[in-house]
């Protein structure tokens, strides 16, 4: 599985962005997927993670502001980010699980600044 992340950019605090993660193959049967981020000088951290079709875990710092979703028809995973804060600035990575391992996209830069 190859993943292509896009949608990052520069946005003002309080603004919104939607990140996309397009997969090279079908993801209709995949429930395990997620988004992580890495800020300069920091370790990669979980943003959103789904292990079943009904449950998504969000980091406390993004709970209520970010929403992960999947469009199986487009083989794409999304991360809708609202009420963005400067501390959300990072490179965002998408990941999906297809047995026997997790696959990662190349990352897309999100910068929140006035």
Provide an overview of this structure.
Helices cover 0% and strands 52% of the residues. The model has no long low-confidence stretch (mean pLDDT 94). The strands form 2 sheets. Strands 2, 4, 5, 6, 9, 10 and 11 form a 7-stranded mixed sheet that branches. The protein has 114 residues and is mostly beta strands. A hairpin with a 6-residue loop joins strand 4 and strand 5 (45-50). The protein has strands at 3-6, 9-11, 17-23, 33-38, 45-50, 56-58, 66-71, 76-81, 90-98, 101-104, 108-112. The N and C termini lie far apart (37 Å).
Write the layout of secondary structure elements.
Blueprint: E1 3-6, E2 9-11, E3 17-23, E4 33-38, E5 45-50, E6 56-58, E7 66-71, E8 76-81, E9 90-98, E10 101-104, E11 108-112
Number of strands: 11
* Sheet having the most strands: 7 strands, mixed
Tally of contiguous helical segments: 0
Average pLDDT score = 94
Assembly type: single chain
Characteristic key phrases:
0% helix; mainly beta; 11 strands; 7-stranded mixed β-sheet; 114 residues
In short, what is this structure?
This protein is mainly β.
